Amino acid sequence: MALYVPLILAVLAIIIFISKVTLSEKKHAQVVEELKSKLAQGKIEDGNLPAANLKSTAIYAPADGKLMTMSEVIDENGKTFPGKGFAIDPSSGQIFATFDGKIKFTFGTKHAFEIVTENGLQVIVHVGLGTVNLRGEGFESYYDDGQIVKKGELLLESDRDLALKNGYKDTIVIFYTQPGRVEKMSKISAGKVVEHGQKVVEVKFK
Hints:
One of its GO terms (cellular component) is cytoplasm. Keywords: Kinase, Phosphotransferase system, Sugar transport, Transferase, Transport. GO terms for molecular function: kinase activity. By secondary structure, this protein is of the alpha+beta class. It is built from 2 helices and 14 strands, in the order αββββββββββαββββ. It has an 8-stranded antiparallel β-sheet with strand order 9-5-6-7-11-3-2-13. The radius of gyration is 20 Å and the shape is globular.
């Protein structure tokens, strides 16, 4: 008894710990995904939108790969990715700055960050679908939040093989966190192969 009782209690403690950690990780991933959806749908944007004097900015490819429209982006739950923007089916794991701007914040899971243009357009670069569950594993960033960056500057590297091995997609999605401000976007050439730094779309916004 002196041997088996402590052993049984230790095993029970390990089982309880593992189950709590698993639940915690699932909850964390769920919260992050909910935040992503709210940002993409403009549910967190400032209700006091600027006056309707339109500004324009170009967005450049953050990675090498094939262009996709948002309607082609299906997440791990079989749902279309929400919001306005475009996506890239990448051919490498390097992610570069989409324009001159400032890094506003990074998700704790490292798979997404927001970058703001010099004239105020807010964009999130979201690397992979379902990759929130990796909890930052396989991502290496080369910037700090609040840093000013230049178009074409290397910001992030992702392990595409790790994502694919775990059953996730490596699709890179670029979407606007204040879609209500976006008045017009030039047409995305779906299927076109681009290199990072190549112009993808012109956006007019208020």
